[in-house]
Amino acid sequence: MRLFLLVLSAALANAVPQEIPWSPPGPNDVRSPCPVLNALANHDILQHNGKDITEQDTIRAMDALHVDKELSETLFAAALKTNLKPNATTYSLDDLDHHNIIEHDGSLSRGDYYFGDNHSFNQTLFDQVKSYWTEPLIDLHLGAKARLAGVNRSKATNPTFDLSGFRLRFSYAQTATYILVFGDKISGTVNKTWIEYLFEKERLPVELGWEKRENIITTADLDSMIERVMKATKEIETLQEA
Question: Where in the sequence is the domain holding 185, given as residue range(s)?
Fold first, then answer.
């Protein structure tokens, strides 16, 4: 695994896009509602079976996206809560299916728990979301607009809809994360084709030209991007109410 990550880091740091090993999950592998974690497992950056992921596994995998150690530890701590076994020290990707821990209503690409499948990629729902990405670059406005449309759809159709408290922050974080990891954190923009590729193929968009970010991604970066998505959302809601 360490040798593979060294090879991966070299590939992602190279200015010329290169393919990195990828294979879909096998019959005994597990995956999550999160396309980024699934992509990391499909690339064997996280263990391909998606099971028994430790804190060190998480830190090493997040380093492939240039996420710093502190934020990686925070992400691991959140994921660990989805393992409902007492005194758990690892999590598996399908633990993230547990509703209203990290997984939440109004996802960009998954159905709500109420409808029976909050795990599998839902092309119909994702087509609705990406219809709001009307420019080659997704900016904060388009990202917030797509997210809000998904939330409003869920609110209108799911009688148990709940996006209160920390769930709301996780919802904003979903949009903030794809902009931050795959885009430009200064302008708050990201290549639309990269994000469509990531969600639909659960594969890092290296062959489309994405490269590992030069600047490391910190907790402060994520908090800032979440706040920017929240601000863009409020601006959209204000216009809709006018």
Answer: 122-241
